[in-house]
Design goal:
The structure holds two protein chains of two kinds. By secondary structure, chain A is of the alpha+beta class. Chain A is 18% helix and 29% strand. In chain A, strand 5 and strand 6 form a beta hairpin. The longest helix of chain A is centred in the C-terminal third of the chain and has 10 residues. Chain B has four helices and eleven strands. The chains are: A alpha+beta, B alpha+beta.
Chain lengths: 108, 187
């Protein structure tokens, strides 16, 4: 069971109240971009064993998007944060590094 | 033609009672909830102050429920809903907002009983404990696979709102979940 706290409404919601929309902070290359960029946007995702940064939507609740940092191996949740940002907050990165010394930091 | 609710007066009696709440005026109001103009419009429409996050406030002529950081559900008399929408639109003027009468798009239930938390917890992942979900708070979540919102008006009474098209299903679900002999005794 996975519970995430939505930073928009403060509810600690069950996974089934939420919808995951994959890797966060990707650059969405659109029309006019070159083939490599478009390929990267469409298909190339980081998939490390461990810490992931993901986009989630509180779909049955307030309906708003947010970001979450969690470990896909242990389901440990490191934190959730606003979707209105280009990268995870520094404090969260430091928290993860403390818990997972092998974590290399946020990779876009 | 006169208006009818999705449930047309359906009731059921079990470990909690389930009853069609009848026609209720409901208005979706979206915009900048922090603005003074919005607070004024909510006050004029319902007589209630702007609800804080997850709260429901009641006033002389209605109630206002916090649905998300930019959305409220205003509850007023069914017959007044269109007039209230017009008043809100006039009062908010050019400010970016949306006000729409959704009264006929929803089904509303009254749930009187002392085991409401146990019954709702059978189908919803929401934390139904009194600490996590006190009276005066609105919870948007799901029952089975259907989106619902519910709140307690007092310790023995709750209201539940869902989309009209699934009103019949939610009625059957609540009937089933409140069958006599299915007491949980947790909350």
């Amino acid at each position: 069971m996975l519970s995430l706290t939505c930073p928009n409404c403060g509810i600690t919601a069950d996974e089934t109240d939420l919808h995951c929309d994959g890797q966060a902070h990707i650059t969405r290359h659109g029309a006019g971009s070159n083939d490599d960029d478009l390929e990267t946007y469409l298909f190339m995702r980081n998939n490390p064993k461990g810490v992931h940064f993901e986009r989630w939507r509180h779909v049955y609740g307030c309906g708003k998007w947010f970001h979450a940092a969690r470990c896909t191996m242990t389901l440990e949740v490191f934190g959730t944060y606003s979707a209105q940002t280009f990268e995870p907050p520094k404090a969260l990165i430091n928290k993860i590094k403390k818990k997972r010394p092998e974590f290399e930091g946020f990779v876009k | 033609m006169s208006s009818v609710t999705a449930l047309n007066g359906a009731t059921s009696n079990g470990i909690i009672n389930v009853a069609d709440a009848g026609l209720m005026g409901m208005i979706t109001l979206r915009g900048d909830l922090a603005s003074a103009g919005m607070a004024k419009a909510v006050k004029a429409a319902t007589g209630s102050p702007m609800p804080a996050m997850r709260q429901i406030t009641t006033g002389k002529s209605g109630a206002a429920a916090w649905m998300s950081s930019d959305e409220l559900l205003l509850m007023v008399d069914y017959a007044d809903a269109d007039a209230v929408v017009a008043k809100i639109s006039k009062s908010l003027g050019a400010a970016h907002h949306l006000a729409v009468n959704v009264s006929d798009a929803r089904a509303v239930f009254n749930l009187p009983g002392d085991q409401i938390r146990d019954v709702l917890a059978k189908g919803s992942p929401a934390d139904m404990s009194n600490d996590a979900f006190p009276i005066g708070e609105v919870r948007r979540t799901r029952i089975g696979q259907l989106a619902v919102a519910f709140w307690f008006t007092d310790a023995q009474n709750a209201k539940l709102v869902c989309f009209r098209s699934v009103g019949g299903h939610i009625m059957r679900w609540l009937e089933n979940a409140s069958e006599i002999g299915s007491e949980v005794g947790f909350h």
